[in-house]
Amino acid sequence: MENNSGGMGSGEEGKSVEDLEFERLTECFLAESGSLNEVLGGLRSFHHMGESSTIVQRAMGANLNSVLGGEPSSSSAVALERESLDHDTHNKRPKVHSFSLICSDWDCQSASSDFIERGYNINQISFKNEFHCPSPALAEGHPENLIVSSSGRDNRDGCNTPQMDDMEVRMDLTDDLLHMVFSFLDHINLCRAAKVCSQWRTASAHEDFWRILNFENRSITLVQFEDMCRRYPKATQLNITGTPAIHLLAMKAISSLRNLEVLILGKGQLGETFFQELTGCHKLKNLIVNDAALGNGIQEIPIYHDQLRSLQIVKCRVLRISVRCPQLQTLSLKRSSMAHVALNCPLLRDLDIASCHKLSDAAIRSAAISCHLLESLDVSNCSCVSDETLREIALSCANLHVLNASYCQNISLESVRLPMLTVLKLHSCEGITSASMAAISYSYMLEVLELDNCSLLTSVLLDLPRLQNIRLVHCRKFIELNLRSLMLSSIKVSNCPSLQRISLTSNSLQKLVLQKQESLTSLALQCQSLREVDLTDCESLTNSICEVFSDGGGCPMLSSLILDNCESLTVVSFHSTTLVNLSLAGCRALSSLKLNCPNLENVSLDGCDHLEVASFRPVGLHSLNLGICPKLNSLHIEAAHMVLLELKGCGVLSEASINCPLLTSLDASFCSQLRDDCLSATTTSCPLIESLILMSCPSVGPEGLSSLRWLPHLTSLDLSYTFLMDLQPVFDSCVQLKVLKLQACKYLTDSSLEPLYKNGALPSLCELDLSYGTLCQSAIEKLLACCTQLTHVSLNGCVNMHDLNWGSDMAQLVIDIDLSVEQPNRLLQNLNCVGCANIKKVIIPSAARCLHLSSLNLSLSANLKEVDLACLNLCFLNLSNCCSLEILKLDCPKLTSLFLQSCNISEDAVEVAIEQCHMLETLDVRFCPKIHPVSMGRLRAACPSLKRLFSSLASI
After folding, report:
1. Which of 355, 339, 361 lies closest to 404 in space, CA to CA?
2. Which residues does residue 780 pair with via DSSP β-bridges, in sequence order?
């Protein structure tokens, strides 16, 4: 055929990027002008090859230069190349022998040397009469067309020269090298590589790459399957699950594929003849039959095979099964419906008959005891199994190591002895009681024990030296666990509402989680390797638990302890040299806490709102927050590494001893009972404090403030909401102070701040907060006029704050206080005068030397009428809710944000004001009654730099 219907044709228009790329590469080979780097670069850009491109490049790198030069590699060179690849185990992919069709139906491309020469279109979703080899090329959703000629030669062969002889376009690589490289590719990429040239096509079809054939859920016909068997007679694995007529295909497979080792089939009807002919498939080692009907449902199905090692008959419909396989080691009949099974498998080690509901107790006993080498037995969900059967099995199968008898309601194990058992699973066995533990204790080699949902189990008392894993979940009557096992490494106990006592001895257990054991009152541990314990929501635990987790209590390696919501704890005292993390969150009854844990780094006390006495001596904490303990009245801290302490809200704290030599920040806000003596002691023992917050500490007086002289590094001090009348102790003691907050200090006199602007006190001060104070206008004006080093000033809510006029009157203020008229430029950057009801006018001309002012907030100043600013670096101006504002003059070339919400200013005034603001980006005029939303265009025209314009009806 010359160009199949639906092909891309020989012109450039129908070619994919993939085809054009291969044509370019082939031209490079033909002209012998393409360098190795160009070719390998092209292979990397071939996106369908994916990660295999780098593998091809790496595998070909060593020998490709000499190969392209016309010198074939010697066998020793190839061996050397293979050896170098074997050493790179991290980057090399193993050989891929799987042939799995992922697409929704068959497409039409072959990977053998003649599957391209058959003439078919890959877009078709069915086999052609003369084509029998499926292709996975459609698996990734790339509907490519392969155009072939009737002469048996590809029109393109992956190149751009039609009618080119195969030998002319052949990549001159040794076959051994190609074979080695292609062994890293899956079948999808092998099919794509076959399109490069005839040599690659032949190499990619090598039978070594097609050992595994997977036709699961594919509509393959018998004729097509016969052709596949003819093409790949050396296939070793076959999957025909879900294919039509699986019996016929299976019969053909066992007669044609003589090297078959693994056969997987199911979802259909298998006749008796298949099992009779199975003996002819001599190399078969693994047979899997899943969800199938065997025979006609009446006769016995014989499965006889001398080499079979693994047999799975899962979820199959059959009456009787007879298995005679002398080499069989694994047998699974799970969920099958047979009523009888006969086994003659002397080497069988693993038997799984779970959920075989029709098998009688006698049938299970007969099948199991016939396998004397049995090591693993699964009889779960076989409700008829009895203790007598298990006892017979134990006597006949001396090597039984694994037993799963879950959901077997009739067993109690009281008379069963299984000394070699290592794994025992007894989920939902209602016959298992505390009396069963005596029998289980005979299994001295037991490593795994699972007792979930054993509803009648009340206690477990075991001494098993090799036990590593135990599970006790949803045992509603379970009261006591006493377990001794030096190798125990995992324990799962949950949802046992009656559990009261636990005693564990282990040298391997590192983590213990016993959450939500509401009745647990007693816990005894001898666990030398235990590091983490979680007892969250164990509501009944008493104070005696502290002895368990202190030094000498049996957990010498404990580093993390969680006791969250243990609401019965009232007095907690730990003395531990290993404890690093402790959580007592939600322990609401806790009133006293004493921690002697020198390595303790983290402690959580959230919700401990009844804590009254706390002692941390010594601890390794770096930070501590006790502000969530409102009833704390006595505190003792000795922490050599602590840098941050927060006592905010400890309103009744009256006794405090804080010895933290590295402490840099102390927040004692609202500690109304904190006295001068406590403050003095703290400043003496914590000389590195840099930030001290004493807001709402009315008991602190001059003596306490004088003790601040012991803090040479103090730079931030908050004395807001105190009753201070004299700040002289602060001026004398805090020479390095940079931040001083005096909010609502209403007892300060008008002369209290005179040392700042007359005597040069606090020369490093740059931030001053006088909000909500009562200082007179004159004191404020002098402060602003003369303290030019201030960068942040807050005067929010100052009732005596009147007009802020820094014009010609400012020089007179300077003269009045006997200072030189020639003052340096102001360093002021942020000025906040929010809610100053008496301000009517704010004038800051260029002569005021406010060269650094970048933020000015005058919002909520209801009587403000006029604002006239000439500030070269002002970026932010907030005049929101200044409802009396009428005049606005701005000479602020760097202003970017202007807020005028709820201002009574006119459109014209705003338009004129922003004309000189060439960097303005945000303008907010919402709720301004004199500015209409329809006039937003005028404002945009006046200031083209606007990006965000907010009006009453919309945001533009």
Report:
1. 355
2. none
3-state secondary structure of 145: coil
Q: 136: which residues sit within 8 A by CB, 6+ positions away? A: 99, 100, 101, 102, 103, 187, 188, 191
Task: Say how far apart CA 291 and CA 242 lie, in whole Å.
Answer: 10
Amino acid (one-letter) located at 152: G
Q: Is 424 exposed, middle or buried (0-12, 13-18, 19+ CB in 10 A)?
A: buried
Q: Nearest Cα to 449, choosing from 409, 480, 418? A: 418
Residues contacting 542, CB < 8 A, separation 6+: 521, 568, 569
Alpha-carbon gap, residue 585 to 582, rounded angstroms: 9
Instruction: Read off the pLDDT band of 192 (50, 70, 90).
Output: confident
Neighbours of 99 (CB within 10 A): 25
- Rounded distance, CA 449 to CA 472, Å? 9
Task: Give the rounded distance of the alpha carbon of 211 from its chain centre.
Answer: 40
Cβ-contact 250, 288 below 8 angstroms: no
Kindly tell me if the per-residue pLDDT of 684 is higher than 80.
yes
Q: How far apart are CA 569 and CA 564, in angstroms?
A: 10
Could you tell me if 3 and 9 are in contact, meaning their C-beta atoms sit under 8 angstroms apart? yes
Closest to 859 measured CA to CA, from 899, 827, 811: 899
- Average pLDDT of the residues in 277-304: 91
Query: Distance between CA atoms of 260 and 284, rounded to whole angstroms?
Result: 6
How far apart are the C-alpha atoms of 480 and 501, rounded to whole Å? 5
CA distance 517 to 538: 5
513 has a pLDDT exceeding 50? yes
∠ CA 714-717-723, nearest 5°, is 140
Angle at 192 between CA 190 and CA 196, to 5 degrees: 105
Provide the pairing of β-strand 739-741 with 792-794: unpaired
Cα distance between residue 369 and residue 509, in whole Å: 37
Q: Are 826 and 851 in contact (CB under 8 A)?
A: yes
Distances (CA, A) of 666 to 624, 646, 647, 791, 794: 10, 6, 8, 24, 23
Give the H/E segment covering residue 192: helix 187-193
Average confidence score pLDDT of the chain: 82
Quick check: 71 pLDDT over 90?
A: no
Reported as a single tens digit per residue, the pLDDT across 849-908 is 889 999 999 999 999 999 999 999 999 999 999 999 999 999 999 999 999 999 999 999
Asked whether the beta carbons of 388 and 413 are under 8 A apart, the reply is no
Task: Name residue 1's beta-bridge partners.
Answer: none
**What residue has token string 């700042």?**
756
8 Å CB contact between 605 and 626: yes
**Quick check: 303 pLDDT over 60?**
yes
Beta bridge partners of 352: 332, 378
What tens digit of pLDDT does each residue of 405-463 get? 999 999 999 999 999 999 999 999 999 999 999 999 999 999 999 999 999 999 999 99
Contact 522, 500 (CB under 8 A): yes
Q: How far is CA 281 from CA 259, 261, 911, in A?
A: 8, 9, 96
